[in-house]
Amino acid sequence: MSSDNFLITSVSPHVMRPGTTETYEDVVNRHWILVRFLQENGLVNRQLASGPSDIGMSFELNSEDVTSEGLRVLRVGFYKWLRDIDRGKSPSDIAALTKALHAARA
């Protein structure tokens, strides 16, 4: 791991956080939706998972896992997508990520 590598998201803190209302399955599903979006759009440097069953408590998404374009998309769209989820939207509603992707490719 290079010194420039940083953690983007991981499963464990979301599951282990005291008072969380999300189930383990909810957290895994949210991470799978993000990973699938990144993989389907060529924004990763390697295959991260082939399905939700590949995402467990030790799963981490690090900056070295995504391309430079992927980092640009995540910088613009990731927290907007999380905010949308917090406001009641389904994690499968990836409009914020899609909009960030279109902007990065414009």
Describe the structure.
The chain has 4 helices and 2 strands; from the N terminus they run βααβαα. The chain has one domain (7-105). The protein starts with 6 loop residues before the first strand and ends with a helix. The protein has 106 residues and is mostly helical. It has helices at residues 11-16, 24-40, 68-86, 95-105; strands at residues 7-10, 60-62. It is globular. The model has no long low-confidence stretch (mean pLDDT 93). Helices cover 50% and strands 7% of the residues. It has a two-stranded antiparallel ribbon with strand order 1-2. α3 (68-86) packs antiparallel against α4 (95-105).
Keywords:
106 residues, mainly alpha
The overall pLDDT, averaged over residues, is 93
- What structural class do helix, strand and pairing data support? mainly alpha
* Percentage of residues in DSSP E strands: 5-15%
The geometry reads as: globular
The CA-CA distance between the termini, in Å, is: 31 Å
Order of helices and strands: EHHEHH
Side by side, the strands of the main sheet go 1-2
Main beta sheet strand tally, sense and closure: 2 strands, antiparallel
Portion of residues within helices: 40-55%
C-alpha Rg (nearest Å): 13 Å
Number of domains: 1
Q: Give the helix tally.
A: 4
The low-pLDDT segments are none
